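Blinded run. Sample ID left blank on purpose so nobody reads anything into the name before looking at the predicted structure. Input follows.
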Amino acid sequence: MTEKALRLGTRRSKLAMAQSGQVADAVSQVTGRPVELVEITTYGDVSREQLAQIGGTGVFVAALREALLRGEVDFAVHSLKDLPTAEHEGLVVAAVPEREDPRDVVVARDARKLTDLPRGARIGTGAPRRMAQLNAYARTHGLEIETVPIRGNVDTRIGYVSSGELDAVVLAAAGLNRVGRIDEVTDFLSVDTVLPAPGQGALAIECTADNADLIAALAELDDPFTRVAVTAERSLLAALEAGCSAPVGALADLLADGQIVKEMRLRGVVGTTDGSTLVQLSTTGPVPETHEAAMALGRELATEMLAQGAAGLMGERAH
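Blinded prediction complete.
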């Protein structure tokens, strides 16, 4: 008799289905059990409001978590950047697999790079974080751009460019990789130009805290370096008291000497969406050995950023 299939809760978007399908295959390999996808519609998927208006953080996650707690699914896959920073009682992130490319990318008409866009180019993005950094970059490099708030899935967003409504859109490289559309990228943005969202490119595999067997099986998919990096980034975000709709960018990367990883650098940025004011700082230290050490790194950098005036830049959130 074959073992009962594990039920994986996923959002219905093409991207969510693609990344959940990849996780399902990996879980099937480590557990030897079939995995079936259970599609769940979340508030973030059906609402047409701007993310900043609907509270940003948690809108794509709540319905999946409810299904987990009700026992309708055994585990769920989230884009880590959608996950609220507060722990959720009764649930545990059992694995953070190895991260995809964390960078943001441009998809523009006529295969243009960011610096080749025409004067007054209209660039679409749903993220205040991207707007703040793109506008700041444009100011310091003499570019004239207009950032336009957009929503929708990958197809919708790229459609604004192909229809001529926008000159370019900015998206996450990881998402385009996962849906097989990375060839359409016209410019990969250096993290020195635009710092990604905390946790961008990483996935979180979540299950109930009392399912010890499943937690142990899923742990085999965990990448410890990715986990400490995203823990530090999310700790920074939490200490700045910002939801995922706030204009915060963060990236922890590992600095290696040859094959030996020596240190971790954490960079953070917060800014006004018009790019007129940015607070951007970084800190470098030993690679955190524990969850607590990674959390402390994020808190320390957040404290420095707040001392430089970051708090005053967070006021653009919907209350």
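Unblinding after everyone has recorded impressions. The longest helix spans residues 14-31.
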